[in-house]
Structure formats: structure tokens, C-alpha cells
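Weekly sync, protein design subgroup
Attendees: M.S., D.O., the rotation student, P.L. (late)

Item 1: inverse folding check
M.S. brought a backbone from last month's batch and wanted to see whether the design step gives back something sensible before we order anything. D.O. pointed out we never logged the input encoding, so this time it goes straight into the notes. C-alpha cells as presented (878 positions):
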């Protein structure tokens, strides 16, 4: 065989390229480098862990954050000055106030009157120097505002920096430096020191009572909260450039959780021991444990089999609660004795004192009357009265004080019975016949807790909906929103799959009736997302028209299918796909509609009213909800005033009970405060539903890595199992006036299903929610602590490789990055081998992780090949 050197030159040079990239660097690390050298907010993991932990452990870095420490100084009989510890006055119209405070005895009041327009210097207060290290920081405060107008009100401009709140950055010599940071989403340099964005786009604020606000510059997930690498100190400044009065109290500035990898955030939990009670999801409001109860001894029949007692004529939810408990108990016996065994766990309505006295485990579910079984102690007689304070979904789990084998599961309603059982099944030991006795009193923070489910499969295979629905009900979610996305082209073709999916979901849900169903339909979804009007052909524009009788009939036809399936709420979606004349300006797109309606709001008003009348005529109990084109505050800003006019024309004319969905200050909001809510609620003029898109943030960033090219190492703090982690300003979870929350994320992957559990944890008990603890609980409860450790190990390795591959594209430290990639790919391989042994019953999740690894290996190989081609080209040009 004859070999051609020319033909094999690329292969030889490819091998050389790989060797060159893989060769260890000769330069040694400079062990004498001063602390802080090379530390960067763009890669917080590069900062030694002990320094990051020390900064985080300091918690609130502000000295005297609520202004309680200080003293009055009488300069003369008419003049009083203030010396407030940790703060400095700027200007004469700042007072240490006792008249209006949020907490404690003091707050800061700043006033600027109409005749102060000639004053150019800042009026306000500034903190003393706060020592910082590079990284990301959370900043929040309480504020009250009265009669706030921009300083240039006569020009008809928005407030912009009328409320002037800043984080001022200083170098090691305590010299002021600018806060300019490149923002990848905007592709521009922005001033990261300005932190009053929530107020910037008001025209004015008449009165805003004490509200908690998150100080921020942008809504950008990657950079918001970062400080310049040169900053060694910061000062916090609160001031007024506009006119009016401002009060400030309870300031908080701290190193955020986003400076740590997923493993670093949860490392403390692996070294701790948690009880079954502490691992319950969602976390109960009040709970304490008792002595564990052994309900069976293997190989003997000395203890009678468990019994579940229900009322004589139970509601569907109460019967489902008993079935949930029986299924759990049966699985324990089958696991020990084999699948051919016949567990003797019974569900009965016969209340026999003998069964209790025999000492076997007995659950009493849903007997809210004072029957014999409830009369064993005064404590148990009071259960029904206690439940009245827990709302319609509350429940109590209470061991009987005289018979420790008897457990009362008492809901305030049949739904509460089911939630009690969903908690009780988590108190069983999965390897031993032990029930961990506990007293629990519980109820939800958010009354309506919703998830998204598609009636149409991603592939041709039909969906088995029952596991989805029962799992979500077990997480105490009570609304299922039927998504339109996968069937979004149905306006020009019949969708049998969609209709069949609706019927199947309705049929499965009727078994226990634990979920309310809502149907989402978007008549514009056949358009490309964020399409521009001038890019659309006329035949596409005429496919669905507001003024077309056949178009409206088509819309009613799909809603009719939903109502026949048992849907109780219809959702008209007009977001994301409605064409725009320019970014942020949604318009009528069909010529016939332009001839029929004055503007978009008139068309929407007529459509909503007709749907409302039609649905009420068919079923008076059916509700209507609406997702408007501008469903977030940043979309309001982009509309150049059109959105505000839209709401002014629309809001007072809509049906009073119609609720509007709002996603917060941004389409994907990582933080929501009361100022954000106040602005949108004032425009909408009605109850809002929180449309949460935050759990789509990381998946979308990973699909479009162009925004990561300036800060690829930020990826190392990401988490494949990223928990629900929206930062709400204390002390509320949702603003008053929002009783429903929809997690608008597809459950099409095993990873997303795991993440969804943390959102359920938050919605039920937001006050005590800890995102890192929540996802750790989910993983440990499902897979065990050893597998959880491996999942975190895989995650950190995966994102280190991801970050390094992006860095490789940018010609940055190729030798070091290639070495790092190869090491971490080996980590991922070893981790997957361990997970194969630890999680044999979870092939779906394992396959997703293996697919991620294969994709990353493929991307890496392509990058090496690209370098090889560059070397070949260079050699050929010689």
C-alpha cells in the first residue's frame, strides 16, 4: 500500500495541534502573588473558597443598617445636627426621623422642594466605606415615597434618576472609580453603580407606602449585582435629584449565593444529618417529631397489618388520600417480600376500637365529625376547631395521645385530606417498616399554585398523563395549565393529537379531581416569535383575523374542546407571537382588522368581551384570564408609551373578574419587588397572576451562548438542577393582590421535573424557603445522598467544561483550558459510571446526563479540529 504524505498532512498536524494544546504550561503559579490579584467578578470561582465563605458569613455588610445608632447634636438653640453611626449627611434637607419608620425608632428622611432646582450637588446620605472582594452582591432596602417628580418635570420626561440610589465603587486607595461594566444582553457598557431601576420609568409617584425594593441596574441574569474588579470598597448612597420626600430604612448589602458553585452552596448539607420530617417537600409550616413507630417486624405477624379508616361516603379527594397511603404501604411490603406477595393493608369505613387496641398502625383520614375514633383525648376533639384557622387547603397530622399507633389526618376539606396524606407518605422509612410519628399543622402561602403541561407529545408517542398529574398533585400543586406551544400551528390544520390530549388529561384528572384545569390558547402562535410586520406575507397575516367570523369560530372551537374536557378557566394568550412594527410596538397586522378597529386595544376588548359572554352562556362557572402583549415592566419600557395607552383604554372596560398575567419587571425576572408590582398593578387596575418564566433562564442562556462569550467562567456557578430562586423583597412571597402563580416551564425533561419540585416547595411555604436546601432535599429524597453527591460532582464538571470550551473559542489560555477540559471530562465519565450503579431505576435522568456529556465531547472535538485546520492553513501558506 502506498501512503501519501500530502493526504495525511492534516491528520498529522491535527495530532500535533492536540499535543500542543494538551502540553502542560511551563510557567509556574506565582505563590507570592498578593491576595486579590487576578480575582474577578466574571469568574468568582477563581477566588479561593475560604475568602468567599468569609465574605458570605459576614451577612449584611452595612453598619447600622436601620439607623438606630446615633446622637443628636445641638449646634445652637435653633439648629440641630445628627451623627448617625456608619453614615454621612450630604446636603441640608436630610433628617434623622422618628415620625415615619419602617422598624425600630429611626429612619432617614430626605426632602427636596420645588425651589431646589438650582442645586446641583447631591442631597442624601452615604454609608461609610464597606470593604468588598470581587463578585456578586445582593442589595435591598425599605423605602417610602411621597410626591416624587423628576427635576425636569416641565419637559414631560420620566423620573430616570429622580430617586438616586447608588453603590459607589472605590479602589484600594479609596479613590472613586466608575461603575462601568459590559452588559452582554444589551451589548453595551452600562453604569453598574446606579441602583434605582425600579423607579426609573415612572412619570411620577404620588404616594408609595413602606415597600421593600431590590436595588438593581438591569434585569440581566449574568451581570446584575457584580462589582468592578478594581473595587476594594463601596459606599451606599440614597438621595433625591427630583422633588418630593423619601424615607429610607433597613438597608441590606451582602455577598450573594451566585458566587459559589452548586456543590459549594450545598457542601454544608452533606456534613449534616436530617430527619425524615426535615426532608418533607413542600416544607410544612409547623412540625415536630415524636418517637418513630415500628408497624411491622419482618418474618412475623405479631403486629397487625396497617389499616386506613375513611368516612362512609368519602369525597373523591379523601378516597384518593387513602389510596395514596395504601400504595405507599403496599410498596414497602412488596419491596421486602416480592411482587407476588399480597399485602394486607386495608381501606375501610368501619371504625372498630379493637383495631386500634391491637397495636397495628391505623390512619384515620377525613373523619371531621366527633365520632368515637376522635374521642380518645381532648386534644383530638379540638382538631376540627384547629383546622378552621388553616384555610380551605390546610390540614393537621396528629398522633393520638392515648394510642400512639393511631394517626389522625384531618384536612379542612377533602383536598386538605389529600395534602395530609401526601405529607404522611414522606414520613415512612424506605428501607425499614418504620413510620416517623410527627405532629404537623400546615397550609399554603399561595392559594393557587400552577404548573404547565402540554396536551401534545414532543414525539409521535402518546403521553401517559397520570404520572404527571398525580406527581404534581402530590407536590400540592392545584392548577394544571394546558400549554398551546407544541400545537401552535393549529389555525390552519386540525389537530387531533391536541384534542385527544385534552380528553385524556380531563379523564385522568376526574379520577381524584385534585387539579383545576386551565386551557391556554394563543391565536397568534402560528407567527414566528417576535416577528416584524414588514417580514410577513399577506396570506400569513390573513390566517387569523380579529374581525373574521371564521377566525373567532375557530378560537371558540378549541375552547369548546377544552371545556368538554373539564377545563374551568380559559386563557387568552396574546404574548410573544403578535407581530410588531418595531421592537416593543405590537400592532394590528391584517388589512381587514386595520379597517375595522381604531387600534389593537379595541380589537382585544371586543375579542375578550365576546369570549367572556360566550363562555358564561355555556358555563357560568368558567373563568377567563388574559396574557397581554406587554406582560412585563421592561416590555412597557420598550413600547415608547404605547403600552400605557393600551392599558388606559382597556383596563376599565374589561370584565371585573378577569385576571391578567404578569411576569414581573422582566420576561424572566430573577428579582421582583413591590415597586415593580405597584407600577404594573396601577396600569392593569385588577388582580394579577404571576407568570414565572425564571426557570427558563439558564436553559435559554445555554442555547444561545453568544451572551456568555464575554463572561464564560460565570457558567461555573450554574446548576443543571437550578432550583426556583427568584428573589422576592421581604417580607412577602407574592405582592398583595396576586393569589395565583404559574410556573411557565415545560415538564418535558427529567431535569425540569426535578427543578419543578423546588417551585412547589416555594409556593407552599415561601417564608422558610431556601433554594439550595430545597434542591438538595429533592435529590436526596429521590436518589439518596451518595447519588446526590455524584450529581453535584457531574454538574460542576459539566459547567467547568462548558466554560472552558467557550474560552477555547476565544484563544484564551488554550493549554490550560484543554488540560482542564480533559480532566473534567474524566470526572464526568467517572461520575456517570457511579450513577449507573447508584440510580439503576432512573434511566431517564441518566440518559439526559449522558447526552449532555456526549454533546460536550463533540463540541470539544470540533474546537480542536478548528485549531488543526488553522495550523494546516498556516503550513500550506509557507
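Designed sequence read out in the meeting:
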Amino acid at each position: 500500500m502506498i501512503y501519501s504524505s500530502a493526504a495525511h498532512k492534516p491528520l498529522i498536524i491535527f495530532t500535533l495541534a492536540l499535543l500542543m494544546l494538551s502540553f502542560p504550561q511551563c510557567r509556574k503559579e506565582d505563590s507570592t502573588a498578593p491576595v486579590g490579584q487576578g480575582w474577578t467578578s466574571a469568574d468568582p470561582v477563581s477566588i479561593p473558597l475560604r475568602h468567599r465563605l468569609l465574605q458570605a458569613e459576614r451577612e449584611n455588610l452595612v453598619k447600622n443598617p436601620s439607623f438606630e445608632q446615633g446622637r443628636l447634636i445641638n449646634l445652637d438653640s435653633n439648629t440641630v445636627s445628627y451623627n448617625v453611626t456608619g453614615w454621612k449627611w450630604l446636603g441640608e434637607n436630610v433628617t434623622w426621623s422618628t415620625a415615619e419608620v419602617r422598624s425600630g425608632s429611626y429612619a432617614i428622611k430626605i426632602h427636596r422642594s420645588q425651589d431646589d432646582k438650582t442645586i446641583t450637588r447631591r442631597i442624601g446620605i452615604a454609608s461609610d466605606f464597606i470593604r468588598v472582594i470581587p463578585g456578586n452582591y445582593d442589595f435591598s432596602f425599605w423605602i417610602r415615597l411621597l410626591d416624587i417628580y423628576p427635576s425636569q418635570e416641565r419637559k414631560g420626561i420620566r423620573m430616570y434618576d429622580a430617586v438616586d440610589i447608588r453603590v459607589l465603587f472605590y479602589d484600594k486607595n479609596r479613590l472613586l472609580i466608575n461603575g462601568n461594566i459590559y452588559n452582554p444582553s444589551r451589548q453595551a457598557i452600562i453604569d453598574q453603580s446606579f441602583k434605582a431601576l425600579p423607579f426609573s420609568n415612572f412619570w411620577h409617584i404620588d404616594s408609595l407606602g413602606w415597600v421593600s425594593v431590590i436595588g438593581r441596574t438591569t434585569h440581566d441574569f449574568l451581570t446584575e449585582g457584580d462589582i468592578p474588579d478594581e473595587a476594594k470598597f463601596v459606599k451606599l448612597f440614597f438621595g433625591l435629584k427630583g422633588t418630593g420626600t423619601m424615607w429610607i430604612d433597613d438597608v441590606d448589602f451582602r455577598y450573594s449565593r451566585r458566587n459559589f458553585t452548586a456543590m459549594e452552596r450545598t457542601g454544608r448539607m452533606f456534613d449534616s444529618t436530617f430527619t425524615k420530617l426535615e426532608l418533607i417537600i413542600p416544607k410544612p409550616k409547623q412540625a415536630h417529631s415524636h418517637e418513630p413507630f415500628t408497624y411491622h417486624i419482618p418474618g412475623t405477624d405479631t403486629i397487625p397489618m396497617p389499616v386506613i379508616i375513611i368516612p362512609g361516603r368519602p369525597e373523591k379527594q379523601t378516597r384518593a388520600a387513602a389510596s395514596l397511603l395504601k400504595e405507599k404501604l403496599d410498596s414497602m411490603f412488596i419491596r421486602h417480600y416480592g411482587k407476588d406477595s399480597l399485602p394486607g393493608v386495608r381501606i375501610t369505613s368501619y371504625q372498630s376500637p379493637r383495631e386500634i387496641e391491637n397495636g397495628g398502625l391505623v390512619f384515620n383520614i377525613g373523619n371531621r365529625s366527633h365520632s368515637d375514633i376522635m374521642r380518645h383525648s381532648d386534644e383530638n376533639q379540638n382538631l376540627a376547631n384547629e383546622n378552621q384557622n388553616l384555610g380551605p387547603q390546610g390540614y393537621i397530622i396528629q398522633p393520638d395521645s392515648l394510642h400512639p399507633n393511631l394517626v389522625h389526618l384531618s384536612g379542612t376539606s377533602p383536598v386538605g385530606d389529600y395534602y395530609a396524606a401526601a405529607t404522611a407518605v414522606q414520613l415512612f422509612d424506605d428501607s425499614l417498616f418504620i413510620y416517623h410519628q410527627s405532629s404537623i399543622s400546615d397550609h399554603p402561602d399561595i392559594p393557587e399554585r400552577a404548573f404547565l403541561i402540554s396536551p401534545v407529545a414532543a414525539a409521535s408517542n402518546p403521553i401517559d398523563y397520570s404520572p404527571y398529574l398525580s406527581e404534581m398533585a402530590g407536590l400540592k400543586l392545584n392548577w394544571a395549565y394546558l400549554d398551546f406551544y407544541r400545537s401552535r400551528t393549529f389555525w390552519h390544520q386540525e389537530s387531533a393529537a391536541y384534542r385527544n390530549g385534552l380528553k385524556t388529561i380531563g379523564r385522568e384528572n376526574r379520577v381524584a379531581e385534585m387539579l383545576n384545569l386551565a386551557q391556554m390558547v394563543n391565536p397568534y402562535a402560528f407567527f414566528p416569535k417576535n416577528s416584524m410586520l414588514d417580514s410577513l406575507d399577506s396570506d400569513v397575516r390573513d390566517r387569523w383575523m380579529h374581525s373574521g367570523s371564521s377566525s373567532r369560530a375557530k378560537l371558540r372551537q378549541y375552547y369548546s374542546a377544552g371545556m368538554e374536557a373539564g377545563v374551568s378557566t380559559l386563557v387568552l394568550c396574546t404574548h410573544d407571537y403578535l407581530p410588531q412594527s418595531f421592537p416593543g410596538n405590537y400592532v394590528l397586522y391584517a388589512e381587514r382588522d386595520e379597517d375595522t378597529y381604531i387600534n389593537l386595544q379595541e380589537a382585544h376588548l371586543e375579542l375578550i368581551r365576546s369570549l367572556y359572554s360566550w363562555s358564561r352562556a355555556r358555563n357560568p362557572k368558567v373563568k377567563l384570564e388574559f396574557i397581554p402583549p406587554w406582560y412585563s415592566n421592561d416590555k412597557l419600557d420598550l413600547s415608547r408609551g404605547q403600552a400605557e395607552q393600551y392599558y388606559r383604554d382597556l383596563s376599565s372596560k374589561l370584565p371585573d373578574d378577569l385576571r391578567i398575567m404578569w411576569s414581573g419587571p422582566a420576561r424572566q425576572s430573577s428579582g421582583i419587588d413591590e415597586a415593580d408590582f405597584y407600577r404594573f398593578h396601577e396600569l392593569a387596575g385588577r388582580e394579577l397572576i404571576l407568570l414565572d418564566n425564571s426557570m427558563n433562564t439558564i436553559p435559554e442562556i445555554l442555547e444561545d451562548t453568544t451572551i456568555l462569550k464575554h463572561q464564560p467562567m460565570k457558567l461555573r456557578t450554574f446548576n443543571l438542577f437550578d432550583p426556583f430562586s427568584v428573589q422576592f423583597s421581604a417580607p412577602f412571597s407574592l405582592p398583595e393582590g396576586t393569589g395565583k402563580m404559574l410556573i411557565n416551564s415545560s415538564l418535558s425533561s427529567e431535569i425540569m421535573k426535578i427543578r419543578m419540585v423546588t417551585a412547589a416547595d416555594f409556593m407552599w411555604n415561601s417564608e422558610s424557603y431556601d433554594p439550595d436546601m430545597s434542591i438538595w432535599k429533592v435529590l436526596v429524597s429521590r436518589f439518596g445522598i451518595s447519588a446526590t453527591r455524584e450529581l453535584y460532582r457531574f454538574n460542576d464538571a459539566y459547567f467547568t467544561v462548558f466554560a472552558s470550551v467557550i474560552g477555547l473559542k476565544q484563544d484564551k489560555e488554550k493549554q490550560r483550558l484543554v488540560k482542564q477540559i480533559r480532566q473534567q471530562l474524566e470526572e464526568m465519565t467517572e461520575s456517570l459510571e457511579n450513577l449507573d450503579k447508584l440510580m439503576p431505576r432512573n434511566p431517564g435522568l441518566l440518559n439526559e446526563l449522558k447526552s449532555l456529556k456526549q454533546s460536550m465531547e463533540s463540541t470539544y472535538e470540533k474546537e480542536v479540529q478548528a485549531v488543526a485546520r488553522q495550523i494546516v492553513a498556516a503550513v500550506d501558506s509557507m
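Discussion: The first strand starts at residue 70 and ends at 76. DSSP finds 24 helices and 36 strands in the chain.
Action: P.L. to compare against the previous round before Friday.
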